[in-house]
Design brief:
Distance between the termini: 33 Å
CATH architecture of the largest domain: 3-Layer(aba) Sandwich
Number of helices: 10
Structural class: alpha/beta
Number of strands: 10
Strand order of the largest sheet: 6-7-8-3-9-10
Bound molecules: adenosine-5'-triphosphate
Shape: globular
CATH topology of the largest domain: Rossmann fold
CATH class of the largest domain: Alpha Beta
């Protein structure tokens, strides 16, 4: 569904990602693992169009989207749930969700999509009028995911959804990820939580200093000693 070939990208002319190739098959959860600064967010930002690659290609369902704008990618259903949630703090939960469904493709279906999102996250239903900035970290993560779903995501890219959450919330977020997967959504899961990601993803890539160090089925990646080395930044 989504293919990245030989991607080189960075900032101010200095590459961070060097010759990165990954593939997401439709309906899979693909884990992208790596230590701090490995380049995981840079890769997601290339996929959402926030960072322009210096070389390489990004294909979505066979269509070359390497130079497509972020807006065009959102219209295709490539949706990023950013690290740190980045909800609009002064706006209500309802307004944040409605904004998620603002693109042309999703706008006509916002009421139906809102019902689905609130079924998935009953806690948001109880807090629809509350300012998003006053939600707990876990609730803000629910809102950020819900906002991404409002855009009728076809590929949902979650950047460190478990970061800073209590163990119960982490478990809950992974249960939600599994539910979305059983509904057929394609998910790219960027995580530092190695064990949980290996348990929930079908395939994984381990990024080490801007390059793919290990890739394959989750079982294979789990058993490869290079995974833990790369992860620990050894
Ligand atoms: P983490 O797990 O800590 O979020 P990461 O694997 O997502 O790390 P990136 O955020 O992609 O890594 O960062 C990779 C490198 O790119 C880091 O050295 C970072 O300082 C650098 N970098 C990220 N964003 C920018 C930017 N806007 N300008 C310059 N350098 C940047």
């Amino acid at each position: 569904m989504l293919e990245v070939e030989g991607l080189v990208a960075g900032y101010g002319g200095s590459p961070i990602l060097r010759d990165v190739s990954i593939r997401l098959a439709s309906g899979d959860i693909v884990g992208l693992l790596g230590a701090n600064n490995a380049g995981k967010t840079t890769l997601i930002n290339c996929l959402s169009g926030l960072v322009s690659p210096m070389a390489g290609k990004i294909l979505f369902e066979g269509q070359d989207i390497t130079r497509a704008t972020s807006q065009q990618r959102v219209e295709l259903g490539i949706i990023q749930v950013p690290e740190g949630r980045l909800v609009f703090p002064e706006m209500s939960v309802r307004e944040n969700l409605l904004l998620g469904g603002f693109c042309d493709r999703a706008r006509p279906h916002r009421p139906a999509q809102m019902t689905k999102v609130l079924e998935l996250f009953p806690r948001l239903q109880e807090r629809l009028s509350q300012a998003a900035g006053t939600l707990s970290g876990g609730e803000q993560q629910m809102l950020a995911i819900g906002r991404g779903l409002m855009a009728e995501a076809r590929v949902l890219m979650l950047d460190e959804p478990s970061l800073g959450l209590s163990p119960l919330f982490v478990q809950y977020i992974f249960e939600i990820i599994d539910r979305l997967h059983s509904d057929g959504l394609t998910i790219l899961l960027v995580e530092q939580n190695l064990n949980l990601t290996l348990r929930h993803a079908q395939r994984c890539y381990v990024l080490e200093r801007g390059q793919i160090a290990v890739e394959g089925d989750a079982d294979v990646v789990r058993d490869d000693p290079r995974t833990r080395q790369a992860y620990l930044g050894l």
